[in-house]
Design goal:
- The protein is an alpha/beta fold.
- It has a single domain, classed as Ribonuclease Z/Hydroxyacylglutathione hydrolase-like (Metallo-beta-lactamase, Chain A, 4-Layer Sandwich), CATH 3.60.15.
- It has 6 helices and 10 strands.
- It is globular, with a radius of gyration of 16 Å.
- The two termini are 23 Å apart.
- The model has no long low-confidence stretch (mean pLDDT 93).
Length: 221
């Protein structure tokens, strides 16, 4: 629906005010914006972009979205540091290019970060409460978002866990296997309904079942 290198980018309806989760790689941001319009989301109602981590497929479009939608950008401290500097090595973009995942000409556009997020922080938008969970492993700067609206809770887990309980280990500097194990143990204790990973299919209910087979689940590759 957007560029082939894009992650799943989500728009959360908080009761007339919207929050975006992740931005895609920044190559076809206009297609992402067109999808928002097609879904009937007024662009001026999008308040904030929350980044789960700094890998290009999740954060590369942040600057364009910030400029086009006049929204605020929020990220973990290490993601913010890399994004504001446009630091390609910090997000392992160099390794991804050498592996052929991205064309050589793709770049990481620096972007101001309006709010840094830490474990235990809580954000409120309209009818939604968003709890921030540090979730290092796939990437050391990863955060997960536990979104509560009424009695319903949804987990937006970036690239931490995928459909069927699979994970993604990569031979890059910011992948931390021991930390991954600890993160998975923490998530296994959570109760939630919807399960929204950074890639592949999601589950709108009974999302907790994707963590039942931990630990350690099979690698996605």
């Amino acid at each position: 629906m957007t560029h082939d290198n894009d992650c799943n980018a989500y728009a959360i309806d908080c009761g007339g005010e919207f929050v975006l989760v992740d931005s895609g790689c920044g190559v076809e941001t206009e297609r992402l914006i067109a999808n928002l319009k097609t879904d009937g989301i007024p662009l001026d109602s999008v308040a904030m972009l929350l980044l789960t981590h700094g890998h290009l497929d999740h954060s590369g479009g942040a600057r364009q979205l910030r400029d086009r939608l006049h929204l605020k950008v929020a990220a973990s401290v290490p993601t913010a540091r890399a994004l504001e500097a446009g630091d390609e090595e910090a997000i392992s973009l160099g390794a991804a290019k050498r592996a052929g995942i991205y064309p050589a000409g793709v770049s990481f556009e620096a972007c101001p970060v309006d709010k840094t997020l830490r474990d235990g922080d809580q954000l409120r938008f309209g009818a939604c409460t968003i709890d921030i969970l540090e979730a290092p492993g796939h990437a050391r700067d990863m955060i997960n978002l536990l979104v509560s609206h009424g009695s319903w809770r949804d987990l937006f887990c970036g690239d931490t866990v995928f459909h069927g309980g699979r994970i993604l280990l990569q031979d890059v500097a910011d992948c931390d296997i021991p930390a991954y194990s600890q993160t998975l143990r923490r998530l296994a204790d959570l109760e939630f309904d919807g399960f929204y990973p950074g890639h592949l299919i999601w589950s709108e209910q009974r999302g907790r079942r994707h963590l039942d087979r931990l630990l350690l689940p099979p690698n996605i590759i």
